[in-house]
Amino acid sequence: MTDIDNEISLNTRCADCSLDTIKAHEWYMVHDHVWERAWGQISRGMPGDQILCIGCLENRIGRRLTSADFTDAPVNEDRDDNFVSDRMFERLKDWC
Fold first, then answer.
1. Secondary structure (3-state) at 86
2. Whole-model pTM?
3. How far apart are alpha carbons 78 and 96 in whole angstroms?
């Protein structure tokens, strides 16, 4: 593993469970109101400090994500089950 791989891996871990969201294929963007509900009054900190896997985001908001929760950002487009986790695919499948 290169230094770049280590740096990316360290900066993509879920804040709650430490899952590496890149390796788990859970890299996404949700609408601001969803993210704000998950983080509440917690300080935003540095970029990369507020990363959550799908499961931890759902735990924080108290419900399962739906395709309507995801933005139309390029990171959410052209996704299929080969490039996202099973649970991410299930949440995106009626959006893509």
1. helix
2. 0.79
3. 7
Terminal Cα distance for the chain, rounded: 33
Tally of domains in the chain: 1
| pLDDT tens by residue, 1-46 | 555 555 544 578 899 999 999 999 998 999 999 999 998 866 555 5
Token code pair at residue 42:
């917690």
The percentage of residues in the chain with a pLDDT greater than 90, rounded to a whole number, is: 47
Cross-strand bridge partners of residue 70 = 30
Q: Which two tokens stand for residue 6?
A: 């280590």
Specify whether the CB–CB gap between 51 and 15 falls below 8 A: yes
Range of the domain at 10: 3-92
**What does the angle CA 83 – CA 17 – CA 6 come to, to the nearest 5 degrees?**
65
Q: What is the distance between the alpha carbons of residues 61 and 78, in angstroms, rounded to a whole number?
A: 26
